[in-house]
Amino acid sequence: MYGVEAETGYRQAPGEGILNMAVLVRYENVLEPMAQQWDSWIDYQKGKINRGLKELEQDATIFNSEVNISSTTVVCVIDYLDF
């Protein structure tokens, strides 16, 4: 009953997490005055982004078979990071 949906959601979660961290870093860089930006926090978030991308890269072959919410999320993440 939950097989395909659970698997898709499991694969979608890292993409969402990466995107959340990327948006937070963007907010910090754009909205906070330079004097109030917390560099160690930004570096920590970027570390999370990099670890998430490595995890996705290890499972990259799962995105070859079909277009679904997981693959769409990953494409959006990569596009945002490239922005």
Describe this protein's structure.
This protein has 83 residues and is mainly alpha-helical. The chain has a single domain (3-82), classed as Glutathione S-transferase Yfyf (Class Pi), Chain A, domain 2 (Up-down Bundle). The chain is built from three helices and no strands. It has helices at 3-31, 39-58, 69-82. Helix 1 (3-31) packs antiparallel against helix 2 (39-58) and helix 1 (3-31) packs parallel to helix 3.
Compact overview of the structure:
This protein has 83 residues and is an all-alpha fold. It has helices spanning 3-31, 39-58, 69-82.
Please specify the SSE layout and strand pairing:
Elements: H1 3-31, H2 39-58, H3 69-82
Helix pairs in contact: 1-2, 1-3
What is the overall pLDDT average?
85
Beta content comes to under 5%
CATH architecture term: Up-down Bundle
What distance lies between the first and last C-alpha atoms, to the nearest angstrom? Answer: 38 Å
Number of helices: 3
Q: How many strands, which pairing sense, and closed or not: the largest β-sheet?
A: none
Radius of gyration: 15 Å
As a percent range, the share of helical residues equals over 70%
In the CATH hierarchy, the third-tier topology is known as Glutathione S-transferase Yfyf (Class Pi), Chain A, domain 2
Query: What would you call the structural class?
Result: mainly alpha
Order of helices and strands: HHH
Uncertain runs with pLDDT below 50, 5 residues or more?
none
